[in-house]
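--- STAGE predict ---
source: upstream dedup step, 1 unique chain passed
mode: sequence only
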Amino acid sequence: MKEKIQLTQYSTKSGCAAKLSATDLKEIMKEVPLGRVDELLVGTEHGDDAAAFKI
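--- STAGE serialize ---
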């Protein structure tokens, strides 16, 4: 049997304390190539912390 790994052992923070600041996130996202698809309703252009896709 394989050793059971708990991913939480690698996390030092949780919840809101684990979030990046808006400034840090914006800096990181500048380096990510983004495409546009018709099903994407809300993406990164408004600084949202989630995306919404039309299914």
